[in-house]
Description:
Layout: H1 15-20, E1 25-27, E2 30-31, E3 46-52, H2 56-67, E4 74-81, H3 87-95, E5 101-106, H4 111-122, E6 127-132, E7 136-137, H5 141-151, E8 158-166, E9 172-174, E10 187-189, E11 198-200, H6 205-213, E12 215-218, E13 233-236, H7 237-242, H8 257-269, E14 271-282, H9 309-322, H10 324-331, H11 333-347, H12 352-358, H13 363-375, H14 377-384, H15 390-401, H16 407-414, H17 416-435
Amino acid sequence: MLDRLDHSGSSELPASSRANLGEELTIGGVATSRLAAFGDVQLPKVSFIVRNWNYGRYIGRTIDSIRAQDYPNFEVVIVDNASTDESHEVIEKHVAADPRFRVIHSDVNLGPLGGALRGLELATGDFVTFVDSDDTLLSNFASVHIQAHLASRLNVVFTSSSTLETGPDGAIVNGRRNTAGTRPEVTSVGLRPAEIVPRLRSIDDETYEVLHRNTRLLQPVPMEWPWSPGTANMYRRFILTMLAPACQACDLPKLSADGHYNRLAHLLGGSMVIDLPLSTYRIHGSNFAASTPSLAHLGSDAGPATQYKSIRMREGVRVLVANAADFSVRIGEKRYWNALAALFQWGGLATARDLADWNRDQFFNEQVRQLAATFGERRAIRKLATFIPKPLLREGVEALHGGKWPVHAHIELHLSAPRRLHARIKRAIGKRRRMLPSHVS
């Protein structure tokens, strides 16, 4: 029944079900079907994109957990990355004839991010969650995420919920996955008042109050990783298109969806953390992201993805630079350069090896060319000089001019060290001010 792409059923809901979607929302306790013209206000569609590679032992539970969602308007795209185990048979059995599911069997392993992008080509939802095929969703996953989006005091580009860590057999090993903390000054708690927001029928007053107390709105500034991995994230569809990767095909299998999108999306439009467990994250030896449980005082992840950090940061820089003209207008030039600096610093700028990695295959030189074309050479070099070490910046300027440097290039490079020192002092002063109690001037 399931060949390369199953068209046996439409992903659209029946007409009767579509009509009922308006009854699933209320404002001030009144159904939106009574407040607007018929069909004008309906629940947004959620697209679950499941990526699988030889996880036949797990994916059946993943599919069942999606089918059990209490949220009525969703579709599922399953991308099987050339599995050689029993995945094909397990997927066929658990999908059965459910018209909300579409299945793609790829001839090659596209990797976590490549599979996500392939599924995104077919997805039609307003919101998207990339589901790892060894994870499961709690039945209220979609409804709580959508309610958080609809009730947020500021519209954000993605939400990230807590997740239960389980072992290979599904037994819980941690009540939540450890993530880095966030600075209080860039975090605010809570949603808008319940009586003025669109409310899902499945979110009663008590549930809304719990959600209100356990959400944190994160301002779009550089920070460590405060989000849960993989399956726990729900994105607005447009941001995924806006931040699409452009790396070579050989690097795509080394990247993950959350690793590529979360930092970039947050730096552009902010995010929200829902500190409620809405999914499970399975820890096992072949997990791409983590093979050991997260412990507060014992390092972090140990999965295969950790070795690809520099590639991940390079791809983030590539996307920011390629869209410099657009993004610097959307978020302002100051925020744009702060975001670019953060990606370079997360990728490492401390050692000669770091600098060599940034300019592998002339990568940094190409970014300098594009930034100079967008902002003008003087401004680009001046901005880069506040966070790029002089040896690497010299390579970029050399690539622009070869052996015939104009006077202004010599001046900008000469002033790069004091400008970088000045920028560090400003950051240190700002950090100290943020740490002071609010009553201290």
